[in-house]
Amino acid sequence: MAGFRSQSPGLRALRPAAFGADPRGERMARIRRSPHFKDGVFQNPGGTARTRPSGSTRDLAKVFLDKDSRSRRTPKGTVPVHATTLADLSRPPATGLRLTWMGHSSVLAEIDGHRVLFDPVWGERCSPFPFAGPKRLHPVPLPLAALGPVDAVVISHDHYDHLDLPSIKALAGTDTLFAVPLGVGAHLERWGVSAGRLRELDWHEATRIGGLTLTATPARHFCGRGLRNTQHTLWASWVVAGEEHRIYHSGDTGYFEGFKDIGAGHGPFDATMIQVGAYSEFWPDIHMTPEEGVRSHLDLQGGDPAGVLLPIHWGTFNLAPHAWAEPGEWMKDVAEEAGQAAVFPRPGEPFEPAGELPVEAWWRAVSGPIAQPWRRPRGAGAAAEMSSGDLDLAGER
Q: Please, are residues 141 and 148 in contact by the beta-carbon 8 Å criterion?
């Protein structure tokens, strides 16, 4: 069966710690028994997804190296990070649910008296090396230790911008539990997390942590950290349900019909955290555009606008050819057109989905012009009411 070759002990000893560890023993046996594992690799829902960029290497390099494109992929000034403090997070949410976007896909969810931290990435680079790889475009809003106790850490998959060695090592020194997709536990055990603190799940499996039920649900993506990608660790989206509230974190995923099934089985949700950044025509199967992100949220909610959509996976790292603020700007347009409430907190800004929502387009102060293919048609009167900043951002129609 393809993909089961094991490295020699000597090679494993030379392997950088950030590469993690390959599943072995009973963990590998469990992977082989998964209904989602076939022909030596984990399979995506609906069949194979293209995990490598389409088109020629030359075309991809041309886009990434283009001078104008490069200048648009970073902010023009200092990203306004909200000065969250431990005191802010020590007060229980008045409505029972509070979310704090820490940047990229990292979100602290305070839900029905419990605290869940999704995809914590506090490292300076999403890379196995401290001297190379995508670097943060804004500082972390507050130190990891300043979050206070966390009941559960949830990991969506093992890519470097979601599973961060420095963050996991810091959290390994606490008593938090870790909910991870099948196979990902091998990385965490190598980094000092004991097996007894791991809840390692296949799709559609659930675990109880305190008063919460955490369920691993399908996503359309891939995995891998080392020099060779064996596809032996699963990727997942997550549903977290408490006594009063339900939330959903997409992890990384392309759009697929399975969102409707997840919503029918676990929704509706008070809030969804949906990946809408790092998309490209070169890899359409594994990341969503803002338009697809809104569509996925509506699928999760049974087809109608409901709950609150928090766009994630944007603003913190330069991972794709699109402009830095494009995901936020386009999401704002497409959500408004759909009549769906979408929130745009500054990194580190707590909000309650049932309270006052942060909707200001804060990125406009530090962003260059952005083309707006989803800009809703505006009449002459509406156009006259647009601010000069809006007109500058409208770009090409």
A: no
CB 127, CB 68: distance < 8 Å: no
Q: Stretch 115-122: mean pLDDT, rounded?
A: 98
Cα 216 vs. chain centroid, distance in angstroms? 14
Residue 381, pLDDT above cutoff 50: no
pLDDT digits (tens, 9 = 90+) for 66-116: 667 777 889 999 999 998 888 888 899 999 999 999 999 999 999 999 999
CB atoms within 10 A of CB 204: 15
Whole-number Å distance between alpha carbons of 161 and 251: 11
Q: What is the DSSP letter of 127?
A: S
Supply 306's token pair: 């409901």
What number of H helices and E strands is found in the chain?
12, 15
Q: How far is CA 368 from the centre of its chain?
A: 24
- In DSSP notation, 229-294 reads ----S---EEEEE-SS-EEEE--S----THHHHHHHHH---SEEEEE-SS--TTSTTTS--HHHHH
Prior bond of 377 cis (ω within 30°): no
Q: Which two tokens stand for residue 395?
A: 């770009």
Find the Cα–Cα–Cα–Cα dihedral 142, 145, 148, 151, rounded to 10°: 110
Tokens found for residue 227: 């020099």
Q: What is the pLDDT of residues 17-62, one digit of tens each?
A: 999 999 999 999 999 999 999 988 999 998 766 666 555 566 656 6
pLDDT confidence tier of residue 16, bands split at 50, 70 and 90: confident
* Global pTM value: 0.89
Phi, psi of 217 (to 5 degrees): -125, 160
Check residue 84 and give its pLDDT: 84
CB 149 within 8 A of CB 117: no
